[in-house]
Amino acid sequence: MSGPIERILVYIDGTEESLTAAQYAILLSKATGAKLYGTFIVNTHALNDLLKSHIFVESEQMEYQRDLEQDAGKYLHHFETMAASKGVEAETLRENGSVHVKLKEMVREFEIDLLVVGELSRIRSRRDEFLNESERALRTVPCSVIVVKDTDRVWDLFENDSRR
User: Fold this and answer.
1) Does residue 107 register a pLDDT over 50?
2) Would you state the pLDDT for residue 130?
């Protein structure tokens, strides 16, 4: 295959917006024949910051990280199931670390042409803006990025796509 989109990476964080992005990435992969990857990144960088700020004690940090890692498995399995339902093969990648750094590394390592992310959350403060990992990734990855919006439309497209 030769075209502008050969490899797609979708970032899944368990939010409704990221699951909408996953649906869109699956449909896009199906339409273009691009190889599809889905990733869930446990933000251990943020967890370490919470520990340093004394918001968490170490045992709480470890317990919360375990919970997030279990969530990662659940959401990545759901992504694979959604892709299979549309006849699309998807590879999953589970990582720990700083989200925007890991996304940049994956884009380079897997030669990703397109990163798909869910709609960005509302920024309530300058601190939120600085800490928004999806936005940092959007600004720094060395590939094109699609921000998926219009959840209802994407849901309808996904549900009504019967071509397998």
Assistant:
1) yes
2) 42
CA 20 – CA 131 distance, rounded (Å): 22
Which tokens is 23 given? 């649906």
Q: Which DSSP state fits 117?
A: E
- Whole-prediction pTM: 0.83
Encode burial over 75-101: b for 16+ CB neighbours within 10 A, e otherwise: bbeebbebbeebebebebbebbebbbb
Domain 7-159: assigned CATH number: 3.40.50.620
Give, in order, the Cα–Cα distances in Å from 145 to each of 23, 45, 58, 127.
Answer: 15, 23, 36, 23
Instruction: Indicate the domain borders of the chain.
Output: 7-159
